[in-house]
Predict the structure.
Amino acid sequence: MYKTNKGFEYEKIAQRYLSASGYRILAVNFFCRFGEIDIIAKKNEYLIFIEVKGRKNISAGYPREYVTKSKVKKLLLTVKYYMMVNNYADMNCRFDVLEVIYDAKKINHIKNAIEMEGF
Amino acid sequence: MIAKINSCVLLGLDGYEIEVELDVAGGLPNFTIVGLADASIRESKERVRSAIKNSNYRFPVNKIVANLSPASIKKDGSQIDLALAVGILEASRQIPKVDENICFIGELSLDGNLMPIKGALALVIALRKNERIKKVIIPDANKEECGVIRGIHVIPCKNLTEVIDYLEGFQELQPYVQKYESSDDEMKYDIDFSEIRGQAVMKRSVEIAVAGAHNILIVGPPGAGKTMIAKRIPTIMPDLSFEESLEVTKIYNISGKTSNNKLIKKRPFRNPHHTVSKVALSGGGRYSSPGEVSLSHCGVLFLDELPEFTKNVLEVLRQPMEDGEITVSRANAQLTYPANFFLVAAMNPCPCGFLGDSRHECTCTQGSISRYLGKISGPLLDRFDIQISVEAVNFNDLNKSISERNSKEIKKNVMRVRELQRNRYKGYNILTNSELEGNLLDKYCELDEKGKLILKLAFENLGLSVRAHNKILKVARTIADLDGEKHIAEKHIAEAIRYRTLDKKFWG
């Protein structure tokens, strides 16, 4: 269970960062049968889906490299489901990736990181 | 918000105006193109995305739908990149509404530069006919060819930023106007008729052929200069007129064969190898492109070693030789390409090449000779107005120091005769003697009593077909024109008959 706890810790860091930068957090860890969305937030009329990735250091590469194709596929399905149940069909949306590098105390917010093209 | 931008695609040889509609709306960020777009258009998404970003505009994070209307026509080509980019900027309110009398043509590179496209000339010509369109924006590299078109403002741009600055009024761009003129430099050939020694008969008949646009077949032993003379035919043909130049450039442009994006001013000379396939000759294919018969439009199509061509490839020539155009029907489309070429063919009289030669013995068997000649079908042979048999050059002719007539003189003569024909056939929609038919043939190729008698004798003794009879009359008309005489005299008809006896000599 150590790893899961670590992940939650990174997500907590991400939430604090987002709230501080003016994002209104709508939901955290939205689960459905297709997958999970780490954070759903809102800012400037945009609905933003955020995938949080954290690593202790970058010895095994940047956290963003771990947002794989299969992960994106699951994320998109989940987002479509979320938008359907909440009736958000015509909302402006964006996918962000937020990477946390723990030892370096660094947070990179990559806006509009995922395009729907090809999925 | 919705934006509507004009653009243009190619259908065969002609441009077809389309409307690019863009809707930028909420929803999951996505960019789709609908309206029967081919792979080259669907790929433009990525180019447009990068070009907009790298031109310091914002690519909207929205659901973007592009519709190419009319949606029932298949479209391909990268030239609608620019329209897509401008449409996205307008629909996402980054630029004001674009005037609907402007049309956008251009491929974008990732850094926002406008890349040259193929077929730009055909697109601009098509847009000129549209009354609503007043201006067309084209890539800077295409301006030389498109600038000669009148009746529409051609505005060359270097990159997306320049286009937007022009639309917003920050930058004034003047329409590019290019004069059509052919400098001597462009018309220079490094070969000349005077290089051919002797072979007076061959030269005379080629001159007649060019003067009246009669197709010609030259039969002779190897080394007689058949290929040499054929290569020099463009040097004695009249210069391309502006309209002809446009047509030729259009065809070359679309098949991606122009190197410098300028108008072609030399008559084309096409010399396909005898292994050429049917489709390569006629045009068509997966991405329909003009074949050799169209590439030699307004120029010379030279078929060397005629019997070596596959039989069904040669039969392809029959329709364009009569109609001056070729209609290619394929699963995807039916397209008509112009194919008004001047056919020059050369061949040996037999497989070894020396049948009838005075200095060599022919080693072929009768069977192999008739098989060889049999590859040229009667109907095809009939379509050559002039058929001549030439002999090998003898040593005396080769070393003679008399100066032969050069291309310039012959060309002057040819142009005089062509001018004569053009004036004579004003209002009949034909230009040359070879196009005479029916009533016109009777009217302009009247014979005197002596001429009629000769023709009658030839007709009966040589067993000529009606087509051959008519062709003799046409050729006689051209010979009389070359002599500057109004009426066809006995000697003219006699010479013309001489150019039709070959099928009896070898095929008879």
